[in-house]
């Protein structure tokens, strides 16, 4: 009898998992090389938001592969393909209608950075508009936001590490980047966080998992519910603090 109950319990678990995943279509899940949030390590996706997404997948019964690719390519695909997710995507007004949103999964300060020995001082966006050029990653939210603010001096770069390298080698005086990623990128290139300084912080925003407009609403609801559950049970905060100790942990949608 106990053996029968064991088999019945196992079958029930399988059926429950199948039902949980049932009806949810397969997804193309895309991200970029932007450590420590998202990157490729030994051919596998890794990073803070990758771990969050993988835990969401576990909870909703998704086994879809996460692909690391250049941001500009993923950004285009996420706007045109069905059932496509792209992360970490900062949610700003210029993007609001382009995607369906699940999050927040990060909180970020967007700033202009210069080398430590730079004499440049910025006290406003107007000061930054007068510069010869500002490097920014192509199709990042910072490029979109600054372009919308009338910046005509932006030079779009393919990857964050390429942009930081150009700054440190004197090929640019100013870049637009984030507090969450700059320290790691500097260390990867052989520098220290103290080798740069913030010249001016101009935006506070949150990162999300962005789904293509044609993605099923059922997928978006399931992912948002799984993320909310992670925040309630503490597993989200544990992942976040391990990767970004000392940084504020995003709360539930609508929370301050």
Number of continuous helical runs: 9
Total E-strand runs: 10
Radius of gyration (CA) equals: 20 Å
Fraction of residues in helices?
25-40%
Mean pLDDT metric:
90
Order of helices and strands: HEEEHEHEEHEHEHEHEHH
Summing up helix and strand content along with how strands pair, one would put the structural category as alpha/beta
Major β-sheet, in short?
6 strands, mixed
CA-based shape: globular
Strand order of the largest sheet: 4-1-5-10-6-9
Beta-strand content bin: 25-35%
Low-confidence stretches: 4-21
Taking the alpha carbons of the first and last residues, their distance comes to: 53 Å
Keywords: Signal
Organism: Chromobacterium indicum
Domain Solute-binding protein family 3/N-terminal: 26-247
Protein name: Transporter substrate-binding domain-containing protein
Task: Please give a structural write-up.
- With 256 residues, this protein is of the alpha/beta class.
- The chain contains 9 helices and 10 strands.
- The strands form 3 sheets. Strands 4-1-5-10-6-9 form a 6-stranded mixed β-sheet, sandwiched between helices. A two-stranded antiparallel sheet has the order 2-3. A two-stranded parallel ribbon has the order 7-8.
- A hairpin with a 2-residue loop joins β2 and β3.
- About 7% of the residues have low confidence.
Task: Summarize the model shown.
The protein is α/β, with parallel strands linked by helices. Helices cover 38% and strands 25% of the residues.
Question: In terms of topology, how is this protein built?
Answer:
Elements: H1 2-21, E1 28-31, E2 39-41, E3 44-46, H2 48-60, E4 66-68, H3 71-80, E5 84-90, E6 100-115, H4 125-129, E7 134-137, H5 141-148, E8 154-157, H6 160-168, E9 175-178, H7 182-188, E10 196-211, H8 217-233, H9 235-243
Parallel strand pairs: 1-4, 1-5, 7-8
Antiparallel strand pairs: 2-3, 5-10, 6-9, 6-10
Helix pairs in contact: 2-8, 2-9, 6-7
């Amino acid at each position: 009898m106990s053996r029968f109950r064991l088999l019945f319990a196992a079958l029930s678990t399988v059926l429950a998992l199948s039902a949980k995943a049932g009806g949810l279509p397969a997804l193309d899940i895309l991200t970029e090389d932007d450590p420590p949030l998202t990157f490729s390590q030994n051919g596998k996706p890794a990073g803070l938001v990758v771990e969050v997404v993988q835990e969401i997948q576990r909870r909703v019964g998704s086994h879809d592969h996460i692909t690391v690719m250049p941001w500009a390519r993923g950004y285009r695909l996420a706007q045109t393909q069905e059932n496509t997710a792209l992360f970490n995507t900062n949610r700003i007004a210029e993007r609001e209608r382009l995607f369906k949103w699940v999050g927040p999964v990060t909180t970020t300060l967007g700033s202009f950075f210069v080398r430590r020995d730079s004499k440049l001082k910025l006290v406003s966006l107007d000061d930054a508009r007068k510069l010869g050029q500002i490097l920014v990653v192509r199709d990042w939210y910072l490029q979109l936001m600054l372009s919308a603010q009338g910046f005509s001096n932006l030079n779009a770069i393919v990857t964050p590490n390429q942009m930081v390298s150009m700054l440190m080698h004197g090929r640019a005086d100013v870049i637009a980047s984030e507090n969450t990623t700059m320290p790691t990128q500097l260390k990867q290139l052989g520098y220290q966080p103290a080798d740069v300084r913030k010249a001016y912080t101009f935006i506070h925003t949150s990162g999300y998992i962005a789904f293509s407009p044609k993605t099923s609403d059922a997928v978006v609801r399931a992912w948002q519910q799984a993320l909310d559950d992670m925040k309630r049970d503490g597993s989200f905060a544990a992942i976040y603090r391990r990767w970004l100790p000392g940084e504020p942990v995003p709360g539930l949608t609508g929370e301050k």
